[in-house]
Specification:
The protein has 126 residues and is α+β, with helices and mostly antiparallel strands. The protein has helices spanning 35-43, 106-125; strands at 4-9, 14-21, 24-30, 46-47, 67-74, 77-84, 93-100.
Length: 126
């Protein structure tokens, strides 16, 4: 596997990256407002307490439909990454949580990730 380098330039709203795989180097440039992609991207994520892999998680927060995330599970790792959408007048917050070496304790790791996201949600929505 090669390496990847990505730079996001907020002033111009560009994503500029270079993906390297073996001897091949591919420039990747996306120009234009990132906002035009954001809504489509967020729409693909599961809604906490409503659908997908989060349908049984964040049920107490589902009235806001504000937790949008993607889960990840391997033998020894648990991940949760996504957004807490803010109420009108507040920003959307991004989060990424990764627990390693959780073999046999996946439930506790998920509960800890959920608690952290719920805390972020509660502070955002109060």
């Amino acid at each position: 596997m090669g390496d990847a380098q990505v730079r996001i330039d907020d002033r111009r709203q560009w994503i500029v990256g270079r993906l390297r795989h073996g001897r091949h180097c591919l420039p990747a440039i996306v120009q234009g407002p990132l906002d035009r992609f954001r809504n489509e991207f967020v729409a693909q994520l599961s809604i906490g307490g409503v659908d997908g892999t989060l349908h049984k998680r964040f049920r107490d927060l589902r009235s806001h439909r504000s937790v949008r995330a993607k889960t990840g599970t391997l033998d020894d790792a648990i991940a949760l990454s996504g957004y807490v959408l803010g109420p009108p007048g507040k920003n959307t917050l991004a989060f990424a949580i990764l627990f390693n070496k959780v073999s046999g304790r996946g439930g506790a790791a998920r509960a800890a990730a959920d608690k952290l996201v719920e805390t972020v949600h509660d502070r955002q929505w109060r």
